[in-house]
Amino acid sequence: MKFKFSDYSNCGKFMVLVGMLVAMPLVVLPFYPEDEIYAPSFAVPAVFSILAGIVVCLSTGHSKDGNFEWKATMQRSSLTVLFAWICGILVGAVPFIISGQLSYLQAIFESISGWTTTGLSVMDVSVTPHIFLFHRSFMQFCGGLGFVMMMVMLVQGKQSMNLYNAEGHPDKIMPNLRKTAQAIFLMYSSFLAAGTYLYRIAGMNLFDAVLHAMCALSTGGFSTKLNSIGEYNNIPVEIITIILMLIGTTNFAVLMLLAKLKLRQIFRVSEVKFMLLILLVIVPLTGMSLSSELNMSMEEGFRHAVFDVASALSTTGYSTMSYTSWPPFAIGVLILMMLTGGGIGSTAGGIKMSRVYIMMRVALLNIRKRISPARKIEAPYYIKAQGKTSIDHALINDTVGFVVCYLGIFIVGTMLTALTAECTLTEAMFEFASALGTVGLSIGITSPSAAPGTLVVEMFGMLLGRLEIFIVLIGIYSGINVLKQYIIREK
User: How many Cβ atoms sit within 10 Å of the Cβ of residue 87?
Assistant: First the structure.
């Protein structure tokens, strides 16, 4: 596999994009002039990333590619996407380090949690300057869309579609890729404006409203409050947050149907029906568990259950109360929801509801096959926003392969979390399910005093979860091959 000049050019474009995004928190300085002392913390890494990206683009922009290698396309795209994310993580961590807000490891952890839309945090937000609160939330909003998505809005090259697919975007909802990216950005900008307006009506100040709307839509979960949404103790705020979280966890193609007001077609989509079924079954059971075990009213138990189950399933990570006192059944439900995750092709993490739905359909078909007449033939399918899709052997193999890898990483990560954090197995399962699912809910393990080993384990989980495992593995494999070729050529 050869890393072609066009790939280096794309890397340069990503570096310029990352620099521009890291510079964005500077816009809050006119509103919070007391934070002006932190301006260099953002300006230095932003300018460096932009200049370095321009140099890379200029040095490769006029170079001609060699023969195109079809078999290497996925490997090269995965490596380019992995480079973009690593670049974003490192540059995004620099402001925390220069300003002295966090240690090196904590800064990288916070940056990964931001870009991957996880929401686990090692910062005390009660004393964090406004510019850094904006930086965290803006990383989540952009990370939900993805670096490739944002780059395609500005510039589109020959490899754009390969990069778009490699970053985990399975659907092209418009005939043109750039129009697809622009349509998605327009939808999210509209939802952001609407969410901010509704939060303001519900009583939030403008700064908190913008940041919470960004993080809810991106299923991120960073909050400006130490006790998350629960600190507001405001039912309208909770309802608005639930709506934004469910929008964020919905497939982009389904959101396009929503924008076109094709409601009947939306409720035919298998993933949407499956999500509603999960909520209708799980929420009442969780509410009854909370009310009986925590001595709260059914109304209060249902209120917490609706919000926190929606938060876990959407992989957002906002919460209304601490989980340290939650009964084992309710904790188990949240772990299951975090593993299931949101809609495929959305900003959410987890295994994804479509894959879980397909696995359950395959299991049921297998059972029916064993008890039905031998001659009976079935052609299983599920419904996407684009229409019926056959559940064939290729789809089953891909789904089973991903789920097995995901659960394998979950088991290993849980054991390592239990070892490094010296916690119970249930606590380790909860915390690593949150990291791998890019959720952000915490049972108390992730904090400013968390062990370095625990943070490292969670960082790997967050990156694998956001880029859906195979992109990271293929990218690492491709990077090793490129390095080997470079060493051989130098010799």
Answer: 20
